[in-house]
Amino acid sequence: MQQFIIHLENDTDALKLLAQIGKTLGENDIDIVSMAGTSAFGICTAALFTDNEDKTHELLRKLNISFSKQNVLVAALPDEPGTFGNFAQLLFDQEIRVYSFYLLRFAKDQAHYAFSVDDTDFQKAQAFLDASGFLQITENPKKSCQ
User: Which helix (H) or strand (E) holds 58?
Assistant: First the structure.
């Protein structure tokens, strides 16, 4: 799975651009599964995860939006206090470099987290998920919980 990292020029125009992206995706029946954003020093970045990566890529290009893509892994962790901290510690102990993470959704006593890692760590992180007992979700988490 992939996340889109949208490079927003500045925080003044960020909401206008995000509105344009959101409306365009909606008009094309693309669901935003999760989105996160931050602004620091006048520079804004948004991470976008949708249910149709190919069409999202096409539409962002048509809108002339500056973006990059990153492969992400999705783990389903028990929805209990401390679980995410323990999970993060395990990734650190494995020397897996995490670039981004965010909560996708809660479902059936689980919290589904997407996280991106350094390209050189991707297979190691994938193997860690498989061996650790944490469920690795390979399809859109929204669809897998319905």
Answer: helix 53-62
d(CA 41, CA 27): 33
- DSSP class of 63: T
> What does 77-146 look like in DSSP terms, one character per residue?
EESSTTHHHHHHHHHHHTT--EEEEEEEEEETTEEEEEEEE-GGGHHHHHHHHHHHSPEEP-S-HHHHT-
Q: What is the DSSP string of 2-56?
A: EEEEEEES-TTTHHHHHHHHHHHHHHTT--EEEEEEEEETTEEEEEEEES-HHHH
Quote the DSSP letter at residue 57: H
How buried is residue 64: exposed, middle or buried, by Cβ count under 10 Å (0-12/13-18/19+)?
A: exposed
pTM of the model: 0.76
Give the integer Cα–Cα distance in Å for 84 and 71: 20
Q: Which domains does the chain have, with CATH numbers?
A: 2-70 (3.30.2130.10), 72-144 (3.30.70.260)
Instruction: For residue range 67-105, list pLDDT tens digits in order.
Output: 999 888 888 888 889 988 988 898 899 899 888 888 888
